[in-house]
Structures are given as C-alpha cells and as structure tokens.
TrEMBL record:
AMP binds at residues 38, 43, 64-66, 91-94, 98, 161, 172. Belongs to the adenylate kinase family. AK3 subfamily. GO terms for biological process: ADP biosynthetic process; AMP metabolic process; GTP metabolic process; ITP metabolic process. This is GTP:AMP phosphotransferase AK3, mitochondrial. The gene is AK3. It comes from Canis lupus familiaris. GO terms for cellular component: mitochondrial matrix.
Length: 227
C-alpha cells in the first residue's frame, strides 16, 4: 500500500439495524482507519443532557431523523480533531443537505452501503438491548448477555431503546427510505459508492474486508497486542 499516501475520507451507510456499528468496529480493529460515529456523539450529548441532546431526544423518540443543522454542526466540529488520519464516518450523512455540507468541507473518496432487508432488520432490532451509559449492544438471538437483562461488565440493567420498538422502528425505516436513499444516489453519481448486500453481518463483513484491503493499509496484527 505504499502508493496510498493520501488520507482516506470514507463513509459507512445503511438503514438502522443493518450492522453499521459492528462493521465499523471490525474495520477499526483491522485497518488504519479511525471510525467516528455520529450515534456515539449523539449518545454522549444525550447522557450529558446537553441542549442538543435534549433536542435530539424529542426527534429520536418519535422515530424522526435529527435536523440537518444539528447533525452537521456536531459532526463537522468533531471531524476537526481528525486532521492527520484516515477516517470513516458512520451514521452521517443521512440526508442530501448533510451530504452536500460534508462535501463542501471534505472530499469523500469512498462510501460503503450495507443493504439488509427490512424484515431482517425488524426481527433483529426487536431482540436488541443496550447498556445506556456505555452504548454496549446485545442481541438476544446472537449476542446475548451472560445474565438476562444485565450488562456483562457492570451488571447494570439493560434497556430497549425507544426507537427500537416496532411502531417507532417502522417510522425510522420509512425515514431512511425517504431521506437517505437520495444520498446513496448522490454518491453513486460521483462514482464512490460500493454496496454490500446480505442478511447477516458475518455474511457481509468478508466482502467489506476484501474490498478495503485494496483501499487502505491493514493493521499489523503481529505487532498489535491482543489481551
């Protein structure tokens, strides 16, 4: 990868529950790419009860997307700290105005889209529970906690997110369809979109990994210490 000296600016997209977080974590472990999740930033603001966090919660509880100006301000401010590293944005942009604002600030070289059927997502998220303070995610079907209803590390209660409940989830999926699909078309026209389809993250991940191996240096696993 000696020829790949430039910093890579990448985006990971997909509907809620498509496995973006899991894929982003695996990318972080295997490649020299810093991942940045707009969801984590929002979660931090929610937990700290900031003005933006309170505002965002109203929209999230209704299954609506966070307004463009709020998400854009949050994201671009955070990206200023990633000046000397290649990065991967996860969960942003979600609307065309967000994509255009991002493009004005940075040239995006690669957009990866996870394509997972809606029915699979609904089944998956009905079994998803989280540890609120850390953001750790469990799934009763394939990644259950050691003790039912409790976080593995702290023993604190797990909760189901309000926006994972069936009625709210339907609204979220429709919002994605209406507002985020035009973003995919925007990046497709720019020639930077790659789509990965499947019903399971373990099915999609090998394809993502093989593709990234042609784009960005991998982390030397021999040099990294695994506890």
């Amino acid at each position: 990868m000696g020829a790949s000296v430039r910093l890579l600016r990448a985006v990971l997209m997909g509907p809620p529950g498509s496995g973006k977080r899991t894929v982003a974590l695996r990318i972080t472990k295997g490649f020299q790419l810093k991942t940045f999740s707009s969801g984590d930033l929002l979660r931090d603001n929610l937990l700290r009860d900031t003005e933006i966090g309170v505002l965002a919660k109203v929209f999230m509880d209704q299954g609506k997307l966070i307004p463009d100006d709020i998400m854009t301000r949050l994201t671009l401010h955070q990206l200023k700290t990633f000046t000397q590293e290649s990065w991967l944005l996860c969960g942003f942009p979600r609307t065309l105005p967000q994509a255009e604002a991002l493009e004005r600030a940075y040239q995006i070289h690669l957009v990866m889209s996870l394509d997972v059927p809606s029915e699979v997502i609904k089944q998956r998220l009905s079994a998803r529970w989280i540890h609120p303070s850390s953001g750790r995610v469990y799934n009763l079907e394939f990644n259950p906690p050691k003790a039912i209803g409790l976080d593995d590390l702290t023993g604190e209660p797990l909760v189901q997110r309000e926006d994972d409940r069936p009625e709210t989830l339907n609204q979220r999926l429709k919002a994605y369809e209406d507002q985020t699909k035009p973003v995919l078309e925007y990046y497709r026209e720019k020639g930077v979109l790659e789509t990965f389809s499947g019903t399971k993250t373990d099915q999609i991940w090998p394809c993502v990994r093989a593709f990234l191996q042609t784009k960005v240096p991998q982390i030397d696993q021999k040099a990294s210490v695994t506890p």
